[in-house]
Amino acid sequence: MFSYRFKSLFIFKRNKKISKSILFLPAFFPENAGYHWRVKKWAEALQDQGYKVVISSAIKKDEFYDLLKNNRTQFLITFLKRRYKQVLNARKFETVIVRRELLLFNDYGNLFLEKLLHRIHDNVILDFDDDIAASKNQPKQITSLYAKIMGEEGNKFNDSLRLYKRFIVASNYLKEYVLKENPTINPGDIAVIPTCVDYDKYEAKKYPESISELAFGWIGGDHNYFLLDTLLPTLNKLSKSHSFKLIVIGGEEYVRDTDFKIEFIPWSLDTEVESLYKIDVGLMPLNKSQNSKGKGGFKLIQYMGLGIVSIASAVTINKEIITDGKDSFLIKNDDEWYSKLESILSNQIDFGQIGNNAHQKIKTHYSVSSNEQKYFNFIANL
């Protein structure tokens, strides 16, 4: 009886949907990089194609950081209330695109909100560019009584993959991941769209004939600083015979005790390109964890899109983005990191040619303009 009454609360008469309308439900606020590149840019492109597009965020930037720091319970309640209303509003739209997950930092409730959305809407797409299960260390055992009472999902992301019927993912690795978790999915219902940049109007970085103090660089969230940390011993060793600095573009200030200079630049969308141009060689170290394998390679796409020579661990999508030695470099182990960085510091590569090749590679394969027809066709064919 309780089950029947509970379900009846969520059975609504479906509104007549607005023709060519799309609702984006992003996980984060507008000032977030994922929001900008995987939601806003495609929303603008779809609007140019005549779609009515609405983006509904559940929280603002200041509110996000304030509540997470001072009142996490209130954060979860606030996010849930707003997202619940947005899910009900989804009935008006032909297509709904969920970015990453409906509820941020909230694995309680046995996916009830995802189930509600799919109950009232038959055309929902999940968009993601990372292995979110790996980043959450899922699947995990639920042991606490509180978590069990609250219906915490120990395998939330993977379980959610079995609810959705259509996906937009950033790499072939993630497409295979979806098919493994949900073998009932038709491969044609998964679009592989990398996290694209719109750097077409920017020229490739201009390198001087010789560089007196080379600037290595890294961009990303502070939760990934531990990956950059793995390179510090190699850089310290190189600093004994070469002059260089490390530019870090991130959130929380990056402070480490090193034998070389570190220049920290706070990340913002407004200054992102200007900051990236200061980098001579972009770095993307990864480990061989499931989390690293599931990444979308966006650092590389940013560096190379501006014609910046890059070096990256030879893991999954990085091997698709880089043609080793032609448009950037792939590294298989720690010894290769040292030897390749040393050769670069000794000015043994053609920065201008490799940078131009990188710029052209991204423009051709990883830009909004080069992927928009695939994106539009996937939406239209639904």
Tell me what the structure shows.
The chain is α/β, with parallel strands linked by helices and 382 residues long. The chain folds into two domains: 12-196 and 368-381, Glycogen Phosphorylase B (Rossmann fold), CATH 3.40.50; 214-365, Glycogen Phosphorylase B (Rossmann fold). The chain has 18 helices and twelve strands. The strands form two sheets. A six-stranded parallel sheet has the order 2-1-3-4-5-6, sandwiched between helices. β3 (93-99), α5 and β4 form a beta-alpha-beta unit. α2 (33-48) packs across α18 (368-381). Mean pLDDT is 93; it is low at 1-13.
How confident overall, as mean pLDDT? Answer: 93
Classify the helix fraction into a percent range: 40-55%
Distance between the termini: 37 Å
User: So, CATH architecture of the largest domain?
Assistant: 3-Layer(aba) Sandwich
